[in-house]
Amino acid sequence: MSIDQYRNKIISGDALTVLRQLPDESVHCVITSPPYWGLRKYEGKEQDQVWGGSKDCEHDFCVSTPPRRERHESDVKNPESKQATNLGANIELSDTAFCDRCAAWRGQLGLEPTPDLYVQHLVEVFREVKRVLRSDGALWLNMGDSYVADSYVREKGEQAFQSGEETRQQGWLAENRSESGKRRKNLSWTSDSGLKRKDLVGIPWRVAFALQADGWYLRSDIIWSKLNPMPESVQDRPTKSHEYVFLLAKSPQYFYDADAIREPSICADPESASYRKHGKSDSRSKHLGIEGVKPAFGNQGFWKPSSSGRNKRSVWTIPTQPYAGAHFAVFPEALVEPMVKAGTSEKGCCVKCGAPWEKIVKIDQIRHRKPWKDTKHPNGRNTEQLASWAAQYGSTTKVTTPIGWEPTCNCNTDTKPCIVLDPFVGSGTTCLVAAKLNRDWIGIDVSEKYCAMARERLAPYATKLEAFAS
C-alpha cells in the first residue's frame, strides 16, 4: 500500500475508518480542527459512527432522550443559555444511543453526552494520526471551547448514572433496563466531572492533556486572537475572542522551519526605522501594546533589530475569514499558512524515503558599539558606568541567512512535495493553502457535501497537481 494513491485527494468517509487505510509513517504534517464538542449537529445520518464496545456485538442501541426541565424565569434573562457555543443550545441527544449489550456509543463526533467521552474518541482518532504521521512530523490542532448550558444539567440523569454499581457505562445501562432488558427510560448519561450550569468546560486543555498522556509531545499552545470574534450578549464575563492551536509532535526531534515564519523585529532604538514603524510614531503601536517601549537595562539607545526578523510568537492575531457556501467554522488561510510553512519543507522530501530536506542557514553575529547618549539617566543610575558598558560590550544581533537546502537522508535522489493531512477537512482550507504553497495534501471528511465543496475550491490547482504527480 502506497501513500501516492491518496495524494491530492479529498476522501469522503469518517476519519477513523479512512486513517486506518493509510500506510504507517507516510505524511509529513497534520493540520486540523475537529468538530467542537456540543456546538452543532451536522446534517446527514452518514455522519453517525459507532465508537467503542465489542466488534463482535450485534448492537442493540437504545435511544436516550434526556428530559428537559421547565425553564426558570431567570433563564430568559440569561443570554448565556442562548449562545451558539453552549452545550445543549443547538444539539439534541435524541439521535445518540448506547448499545444495551456492549455499551458502544452511536452518534456524531462532537455530540457525545459527556466531555470525557468526546476526549476519549479524539484520542482514538489521533492515535491513528500518530501512526500515519512520520516520526519527524508534527500535528497542529485547533480547538474551541464551550459553556455548559441548562439543557446539560439534568439531575435525574446524574442520579441514575451515579447509582450504577458496576462501571460507569454498565451503571448507566443498568438504570435504563427493565428486568426483561427491553424497557428504556429517558435518562441522560452524564458524568460526575463537577460541571455546573455556566461552567467553561475547558475542552482544548482536556484534549491536549489526554493526547500528552497518550504519548504525544505537547510543544506549544498558540493563542489564535480574533480581531472580529462572534458577538456575545453576555454581561458577566468577557466576550470570547480567541481559540487554541496546539503544536504536538510524535518525537522529541521533528521538522520545524522557524526561519520560514519569522516575524519582523520590533526595536526600541528611537533612531531605527523599526522603532519609527512600530513605536511612538505609529498608531499601530497602541494596538500592539508597545508604544514607548524601552529595552532591557543597559541597552538604552543602542539596541538594533535583526534584519532576519524574530522567532514567531505564540499569539497570532488573525481575523476570521468567511467563505460563501461553507459552514461558519471555516479556517482562515492566514492561520493555516504558517503551520504549513513551518511544518513542511519548502524544498520537499526525498522521492525514495520521504525524508524532508532542511534549510542551510548562515548565522552572523553583529556587534553594535554605541556610547550612552543621555547626560542624565531617568532612574538616577550612573550614566558614566552605563556608557562604559555600552562601549565595551555594546549589543549583539543574530542574523540568519538561508543559503540553500540539504537532505536529511543518504538516498541521493530527487525531491517531491511533502504531504499535509487534514482528517477533518471541512470546506478544504488546509488543502487549499497546501496547494498554493506547492505541497501535496490529503483531506478527509465524513460529509460528502463538504467534500464536494473542497474539491470545487481545489479545482483551479488540478493542472499543477497533475504536474506534481507526473
| N→C terminal distance | 19 Å
Low-confidence stretches: 65-94, 153-191, 274-303, 370-377
CATH T-level topology of the largest domain: Rossmann fold
**How many domains comprise the coordinates?**
2
What would you call the shape? globular
List how many beta strands DSSP finds.
Answer: 18
Category by helix and strand content? alpha/beta
User: What portion of the residues fall into strands of 2 or more residues?
Assistant: 15-25%
Largest pleated sheet: 8 strands, mixed
Our count of helices gives 13
Rg, alpha carbons = 27 Å
Query: For the record, what CATH class of the largest domain applies?
Result: Alpha Beta
Instruction: Let me know the average pLDDT.
Output: 74
Could you give the order of strands across the largest sheet?
1-18-17-2-8-11-10-12
Give a structural overview:
The protein has an eight-stranded mixed sheet. Strands 3-7-6-4 form a four-stranded antiparallel sheet, with no helix packed on it. It has 470 residues and is α/β, with parallel strands linked by helices. The protein folds into two domains: 378 residues, 3-Layer(aba) Sandwich (Rossmann fold); 89 residues, no CATH class. It is globular and about 65 Å long. The longest helix is centred in the N-terminal third of the chain and has 18 residues.
